[in-house]
Amino acid sequence: MTTVRAAKTNVARTLAVTSGKGGVGKTFVTANLAASLAARGHRVLVVDADLGLANLDVVLNLHPKLTLHDVFTDKCTLDQAILPAPGGFSVMLAGSGMVEYSRLTPELRDRLLSVLDQVKPRYDWVLLDTGAGISDVVLYAISLATDVLVVATPEPTSLTDAYATIKVLTTQQERHHVRLVINQAGRAGEGRLICGQLQQVLQRFVGSTPGFDFRLELVGEVPSDASVKQAVLKRQLLLEQYPGSAAAQAINALAAKIDA
């Protein structure tokens, strides 16, 4: 059983990592970002908030006996469901294929909120690896975080869905600031170009709202790198398997920027 120690700060910084569509490397970014933050001396917890289609356990090559589902159903304590992960951080994993978590019920809202309220005083960073898209469950998980990091790739479908997600976050949650990381960038500077284009489109949309200033901040650009595929196939963290790779260096730069 993992014992959770007191963190350096009173309440953790909470970051929801999300995406408009699946397959853009959201969980890969989350796991390696957590490892990089841990390497910077922080106590980090990753909560798998993709409650019905979880795959953080696959990325980290973990085989949990207890998950968030067991916490929600009072089959285990919170501490029993917190596991050490490769990379020096902790995780709370979710089950996969559980249809009961496909919709947001009052009980699910209360359970998830209670879990986060209990863990936030114990860590410096809590990362929520949310599902993709804009379902009620995903949007509620995002609403529990102070900050949001949207992961997208340069593909047109990914960018269209990223725009839709950010648009919903500005309207439903009135977020004035969203962070963006472009994964699998084909060339240097591509992320900056994409961020500028998205910002312009979003500004036209939110500009009609008096007094509403919105900023989309590019905090990282992870280049397309063969090392990433190798690490994923091995079910290992990129930062541990290929720490000198261009993608690993980009993840470390991302961690430094959000931790500033």
CATH architecture assignment name: 3-Layer(aba) Sandwich
Order of helices and strands: EHEHHHEEHEHEHEHEHHH
Uncertain runs are: 1-9
Number of strands: 8
Rg computed from alpha carbons, rounded to a whole number of angstroms? 17 Å
Between the first and last Cα atoms, what is the distance in angstroms? 33 Å
Form type: globular
| CATH class value | Alpha Beta
Residue share in helix: 40-55%
What fold name stands as the CATH topology? Rossmann fold
Structural class: alpha/beta
Strand neighbour order, sheet with most strands: 3-4-2-5-1-6-7-8
In round numbers, the mean pLDDT is: 91
Largest sheet: 8 strands, mixed
Strand content: 15-25%
Helix tally?
11
The CATH superfamily is known as: P-loop containing nucleotide triphosphate hydrolases
Short characterization:
This protein has 260 residues and is α/β, with parallel strands linked by helices. 42% of the residues lie in helices and 20% in strands.
